[in-house]
Amino acid sequence: MAELALSLNNDLAEIHRLAERVEGFCEEAGLPMKTVFSLNLALDELLTNTMTYGGAKTILVRIGLAPGRLSVVLDDDGIPFDPFHEAAEPDLDLGLDERPIGGLGVHFVKKMMTTTAYARQGDHNIVTLTMDLPA
Amino acid sequence: MTIEIERAGEVLVLSPVGRLDSNNAGEAEKTILGKIAEGEMKIVFDFGRLDYISSAGLRVMLMAAKRLKQGGGKMVLCAMRDHIREVFEISGFLSILTVCPTRDEALTQVG
Prior knowledge:
The complex is a heterodimer of chains A (135) and B (111). Chain A is α+β, with helices and mostly antiparallel strands and 135 residues long. Chain A has one domain: Heat Shock Protein 90 (2-Layer Sandwich), CATH 3.30.565. Chain A contains 4 helices and 5 strands; from the N terminus they run βααββααββ. The longest helix of chain A has 22 residues, at 33-54. Chain A starts with a strand and ends with a strand. Helix content of chain B is 41%, strand content 31%. In chain B, strands 1, 2, 3, 4, 5 and 6 form a 6-stranded mixed beta sheet that branches. Chain B is globular, with a radius of gyration of 12 Å. Chain B starts with a strand and ends with a helix. The mean pLDDT of chain B is 97.
């Protein structure tokens, strides 16, 4: 199983640095660009929230690749926050005038990933994602 | 990210190049809403050279669309690559924003 592990500072510019590493990692594994894009979008959305609201100092990202499946663990030392239950589901059927600004990030993560989970372990938030890969 | 700005008659064409994400959405918001505040009523967004967009970028597009509509203006998006289009689709934005395949069609559509 191939693994990519990276420690990020609380700086939004770090997300692009991670995206480039993820792209390299996935390219080496021969994954399609669409998968790389979906994975990077999910990581971006979660990390943007953690960095903007969570007050984390460092965030550890681990991505594992097994046959047919990608797995991701995000480990941060910010305030307790479960992105999958505390964020409201957006209503996608509203018209332009009624549609509220924002609230799409976590929706993207749920759409892009096969499973999502959250746990609070000690002083850390642990977000676990998996993505089934096309055969 | 940079935003290239061109004029085609009454229409302002804005082309974001590169990544539109949480790291630069604030800057993009200032540029785009600034143009609307200056009185631009017809805006085409050419996404042909946009590599990446996250929810932070979509937020800016939605704000621009709302502002323009309130002021009686109009915006049309065009030339989205497939992975960008998919993000708009899962946002439900394809049904509330006008999207054209090419810049020429967008210029016609925005009138």
